[in-house]
Amino acid sequence: DGICHHGGAGTTAAGLRAGLPTIVIPFFGDQYFWGDVVQQSGAGPGPLPAATLTTETLVSAITIISNDQVMKRVAQDLGNRIRNENGCQAAVESFHRQLPLQRMRSDLEGTYPACFRIPNYNLQVSWPVAQVLFSHALLTQDELIPWATQELYLDNNRVSDMGTQLLAQAISTSNTNLRVLYLGSHGITYEGAYRLAEMLKTNRTLNRLYFFENNLGDHGIQLLAQALAHCDRSLSHMDLNGSTLESD
């Protein structure tokens, strides 16, 4: 027995939990990532992108998961491990291990995480700390700036052109504090470069953009160059290393 699907996170988890060798046919977003995870675990062959799928490649993959006894044992073992673990607890513990707690704590009193900045004093404070400062007339609400994301790392997540469009829209409409953006190795093309260029024309906070190893083409590079001519001097570094510059 085996399973073949698009590679969504939930579907992949359900198939592996059942202990089934898995074929992933991704077409969008994180599906490519989960296809790679399945292959690296040994529970399935390499992903078969929908855009290049053929009858022959699908038949070959089905033959592999039907006859490869090692792959079947790996999938069964993985299923047993998933069924026997407390997934929610493991996820929460992993989340907390990755938190930069020291950078998140409030200045002056570190019990609570900081949620505001006080630029005049170069401080980050929690709401309880801010209330104490208010009560002693040491601070006014006008001096508080809500804490917002300043660095966003999305390398190797297959954001795609559509994801880049949504991200650019979000930055343009809601985030005024983002300083560093990593979008490396996403296969982003001219369309994604266009959306990003439009955002750069109006953004006034981004100063470092890492856009390496994407498929921008000459037109995509031209759009980014034109955007730089329109934006102010806030952007000081743009990394396009390894991006494809030749047009199709």
UniProtKB/TrEMBL annotation:
Erythromycin biosynthesis protein CIII-like C-terminal domain segment(s) = 1-81
What InterPro entries does this protein's entry cite? EryCIII-like_C, Glycosyltransferase_28, Leu-rich_rpt, LRR_dom_sf
Report which superkingdom the organism of origin falls in. Answer: Eukaryota
Q: Name one GO molecular function term.
A: glycosyltransferase activity
SUPFAM superfamilies documented for this protein: RNI-like (SSF52047), UDP-Glycosyltransferase/glycogen phosphorylase (SSF53756)
Q: Which Pfam families match?
A: EryCIII-like_C (PF06722), LRR_6 (PF13516)
Q: What is this protein called?
A: Erythromycin biosynthesis protein CIII-like C-terminal domain-containing protein
